[in-house]
Amino acid sequence: MAKLWGGRFSKSTDKKVDDFNSSIRFDKRMYRQDIKGSIAHAKMLGKQGIIPKEDADKIAVELQNISADIDAGRVEFLIDAEDIHMNIEKILTDRIGDAGKRLHTGRSRNDQVALDIRMYLMDEIAEIRAMLIHALTVLVDMAKEHTETIMPGYTHLQKAQPVTFAHHLMAYFEMLKRDLSRLDDCKRRMNVMPLGSGALAGTTYPLDREFVAKELGFDAVTMNSLDGVSDRDFVIELASCLSMLMMHLSRFSEELILWSSHEFSFVEMDDAFSTGSSIMPQKKNPDVAELIRGKTGRVYGHLMGLLTTMKGIPLAYNKDMQEDKEPIFDSVDTVKLCLPVFCDMLSTMTVKKDNMLKGSKGGFTNATDVADYLVKKGLPFREAHAVVGKMVAYAVLNDKNLDEFTMDEFARFSDIIGDDIYDAISMETCVNDRRVIGGPAKETVGAAIKSAEEYMAGL
């Protein structure tokens, strides 16, 4: 097949080079964006009198027909045509002749692909955004059911202080809320139109770039043609945003994996979101959570790959930049695969409230509350800390919890402890006296949930 750019060449490209150079196998997914951008470009060319208006109209109509044919599976893309941009241009030219050959006036594949990838990724961000909003809704709905479900909180994976499962869920709400904000911010910087940058130095044609930007819904146009075709910051930024989102899903997945083990037994995954063993009949494995955890590394790898690809590229466009698409496409696909199944796994699992409460009573999670009790009785905190440390050492030796001490045992360590100690260090008191903004008390978490619902209503 004759190349659209082949005028300068005296021999055909080697077949292996065609295969190596071609990107149609992965960039064909951008056909809608490519066609939409070409229609806007054609309209502008006709409006500006750069090509005859009747040719511009003919191009726009036929591009819409091509889009419908691709949707219906009636188009076969050619490797020899290299990429989605030249495939569509070839189809157009085959159908309408010389008018189709005028479409590429005033543009290069460099600014064309820069346009398409921005438009494609903005569409994908919109889809991921909707999935994130659903995930936030799932977290809030579950939190509303568990404001009184007491569980141990951890630091260093050691039991620390009691919280509620609702409080724990709302921590992930805050994380995913930040992820949503990052995506919105990323899209804002992405929403700048590069078409009109040409290969690197713009064009002598009187293009109306603002018209094209308005047609395509962009907020602005790029202000430097070199940067317009060579910028892939927005791809790397999105890869970073998706990496952080996956990191949050992975952290929660890790906890669910631990909690579903026999040693914790805080939750049990629904049968529909678990798998078994080919040899051990008793097994119920949290494979969904494990796969999310594993796929996180895949998304991280794409981020590092993109950074490495771009780090040594001089201005302006270089063929290396074709390597931006597969990693960001796979990152997007991975996130879109993980988010829905994560939400369903989470919303269908059984929460074992009794085991969570039992777990919170072990490990001296109320030790800080004993110290706070002593402080409220007049003891300086550092002295109280030392006293309670000795209590814990005694409790470890005698295999008992602090709330199982007799009054005589308490008296060994301090003479200011009264009978009110038992109420002061109960799990319910330990949780619900922490009413500081952001704390685990039922009323505080309830306020956080209300605030979250108001935030969601405004999205």
In short:
The protein contains 20 helices and six strands. It is mainly α and 459 residues long.
Task: Pick out its properties.
3 domains; elongated; Fumarase C, Chain B, domain 1; 20 helices; 62% helix; Fumarase C, Chain A, domain 2; mainly alpha; 459 residues
Total domains, how many? 3
- Please work out how many helical segments DSSP would assign: 20
Secondary structure tally: strands: 6
**Roughly how much helix do the residues carry, as a percent range?**
55-70%
Low-pLDDT sequence parts: none
Work out the radius of gyration: 30 Å
What's the architecture of the largest domain, going by CATH? Up-down Bundle
Structural class: mainly alpha
Order of helices and strands: HHHHHHHEEHEHEHHEHHEHHHHHHH
Instruction: Provide the residue-averaged pLDDT.
Output: 95
Give an overview in words.
- The protein has 459 residues and is mainly alpha-helical.
- The protein has three domains: 13-105, Fumarase C, Chain B, domain 1; 110-153 and 163-198 and 223-358, Fumarase/aspartase (Central domain) (Fumarase C, Chain A, domain 2, Up-down Bundle); 361-457, Fumarase/aspartase (C-terminal domain) (Ribonucleotide Reductase Protein R1, domain 1).
- Helices cover 62% and strands 5% of the residues.
- The strands form three sheets. The chain has a two-stranded antiparallel ribbon. A two-stranded parallel ribbon has the order 3-4.
- Helix 9 (209-216) links the parallel strand 3 (192-193) and strand 4 (220-221).
- The longest helix has 37 residues, at 109-145.
- The mean pLDDT is 95.
